[in-house]
Amino acid sequence: MTKEAKQDDLILAPALMSLNLKNEEKSFVNKEILPKMRKIENEEPSHLQINEKFLKRWSIEGLIGKGGYGEIYLAVDVVRGEEVAIKVEPKKRRGKLAKRMILEQHVLFKMQGKPHVPLIFGSGYTDKINFIIMQILSINVGEIKKSSPNKRLSQCSVGRIIHQTISALRDLHETGYVHRDVKPANMCFGIYPQSRHILILLDFGLVRRYKMENGEWREPRARAGFRGTTRYVSIRVHRRCEQAPYDDLVSVMYTSYELLSGELPWKHLEKSDEVLQLKEIMVTLTNTFLGSHYLIFRLRME
Ligand SMILES: Nc1ncnc2c1ncn2[C@@H]1O[C@H](COP(=O)(O)OP(=O)(O)OP(=O)(O)O)[C@@H](O)[C@H]1O
């Protein structure tokens, strides 16, 4: 999308306009895991109104997600009679053109056809907002964990989640981008019978190109800005190193630890430096543990 695109540049992807579900399949939607509606009252002023018919086609039903930048609405496509999610962010932030969603839709379009990204039905902008219309998904994995009886997930479930997250990241890394915000809140499942075991990775607003089309890696910056979520970023990110696929995988490791054990050891720490210190201690302990096991192994062999 160009920097100052016009309203009529609204991109719609006709080939992707529908999940092509048969009516009987639609009726099998698992309502339990449909994103719960959040009341808009007492929230920051929203960009769309409930019951509004956005662009004369999508009837806005409720707010289902709110991030630092955008809002995600549940809407019904009145032409197709299908539920969709609409992600919206203000076009300008602090007087500057917001590029986050422009980048996100660019990467999402590139990734269409890959199994672990949301299906995109359209994207564009109005006078005030940028928007992406996409496949509606389940509540996120962080919420699934919270709603489970022990506030943690079984080894089997975590194994499946991690396996699919790694596949999603492999596809993204192959296109030359790093995600930089891998965490349970950015993972959902499909809601139809044929998709409810398929993990979908969300939120491509922080991606960064790490390698060029010809496969060559970009020159890393001496000091990169902090991008990501403190709880899940690697030690390298705390130290402001340029992010690479490795750092996404460290976030996968912290995610799996949290899902399996209920929480990460630094959950209650507020300062980023304290979180870093605890992550470093964990690495030292792990190395000592592995080192002593290796020593015992060597002694036994000799
Ligand atoms: N297609 C979707 N279907 C259902 N729920 C969704 C969908 N997309 C996003 N959500 C919900 O909205 C939440 C926020 O979405 P997302 O991370 O894309 O927004 P964001 O504004 O970029 O967030 P942040 O600023 O925290 O990175 C997700 O955690 C998820 O629960």
How would you portray this structure in words?
- This protein has 302 residues and is an alpha+beta fold.
- The protein folds into two domains: 43-135, Phosphorylase Kinase, domain 1; 139-290, Transferase(Phosphotransferase), domain 1, CATH 1.10.510.
- It is built from seven helices and 13 strands.
- The chain has helices spanning 23-26, 100-111, 141-147, 155-174, 235-238, 245-261, 272-301; strands at 11-12, 53-54, 58-66, 71-77, 82-90, 92-93, 96-97, 120-125, 129-135, 177-178, 187-189, 199-201, 208-209.
- A seven-stranded antiparallel sheet has the order 1-8-9-5-4-3-2, covered by helices on one side. A two-stranded antiparallel ribbon has the order 6-7. A two-stranded antiparallel sheet has the order 10-13.
- Helix 4 (155-174) runs antiparallel to helix 6 (245-261).
- The protein is globular and about 75 Å long.
- Residues 1-21 have low confidence and may be disordered.
- The structure holds adenosine-5'-triphosphate.
- Residues 35, 64-65, 67-70, 72, 85, 87, 118, 134-137, 140, 181, 185-186, 188, 202-203, 205 line the site of adenosine-5'-triphosphate.
- InterPro entries: CK1_Ser-Thr_kinase, Kinase-like_dom_sf, Prot_kinase_dom, Protein_kinase_ATP_BS, Ser/Thr_kinase_AS.
- It is an enzyme of class 2 (transferase).
- This is non-specific serine/threonine protein kinase.
